[in-house]
Amino acid sequence: MPILKRMSAALILTVGAAMPAMADDPATCGTVHLSDPGWTDITATNGVAAVVLSALGYTPDIATLSVPVGYEALKNGQTDVFLGNWMPAQQKFRDDLDATGDIEELVQNLEGAKFTLAVNKAGADAGVADFADLDAQKDAFEGKIYGIEPGAPANQSIQAMIEADEFGLGDWELVESGEQAMLAQVGRNQDAGTPTVFLAWAPHPMNEAIEITYLSGGDKQFGPDFGGATVHTLARKEWAASCPNAAKLFGQLTFDIGMENVLMGKILDDGMGAQNAAKEWIAANPEAVKPWLDGVTTLEGEPAEDALMAAVAE
């Protein structure tokens, strides 16, 4: 090769090596819209997503929306990603979204979850271990089942059970409130020794704070294995196609029960903000985040892992 050609080739290689890989996402992908139904587990995972997105140069925009409104927002293009598709409890909403053809599942982000009715220690001591045991103890339970926010699919399942008089519960009352209000009431009842039946789930630090007995017999309402569930990440197809770098991140962003219990404990018990809890966890578990960032760059095309670890070290 002539000297001039060799020099030119070397110059091209040197310049090319010095230039960062170009990000796949245009500037229009800079803001990522998510929703949070007010559940601490999704608040925690949204916190993780927000920390990673911010470190990579994106701006997370998280709206607090009830489950039905959140699904409508995803369907109507007001949000881009939802980390809280609990299945099979949200099958009805999922079917509605799938029918539009505009939504895709990016990943199953959690397995080993469960979600069904449970009783506190006083309820278990009263002999309640199954849905069918409840009605015989109606007076002790004051005929109340404590649920979460209005419109939640789990509440709908409970209300349908009451209206159908299943297990003799036709004259019971569903008390709807947010997660924190429900757990505060359960805590007060526990301190008073009052039998209480309520929606319970894992992951959640309630499983450490309250002596919980998950009830059998609710397979029809919540699914087998005490409402055994998986959680999925959904995104708008148009967004995922337009923003492949961010979509790749969300397609690799997975969690486990232990991690979420820790994060939720920091939020609920220690009063930490979700993003501060996520930063602390990521800084302490650098190896765990590597799979999330495989093949992902910052919005500017720089290495994602370096940017994230620098951000959580601040």
Automatic annotation (TrEMBL):
Residues 1-23 form the signal peptide. GO terms for molecular function: choline binding; transmembrane transporter activity. InterPro entries: ABC_choline_sub-bd (IPR017783), ABC_Gly_betaine_transp_sub-bd (IPR007210). GO terms for cellular component: ATP-binding cassette (ABC) transporter complex; periplasmic space. GO terms for biological process: choline transport. It comes from the Bacteria. Keywords: Signal. Residues 31-283 form the ABC-type glycine betaine transport system substrate-binding domain. The keyword Metal-binding does not apply. This is Choline ABC transporter substrate-binding protein. It comes from Paracoccus alkanivorans. The lineage of its organism: Bacteria, Pseudomonadati, Pseudomonadota, Alphaproteobacteria, Rhodobacterales.
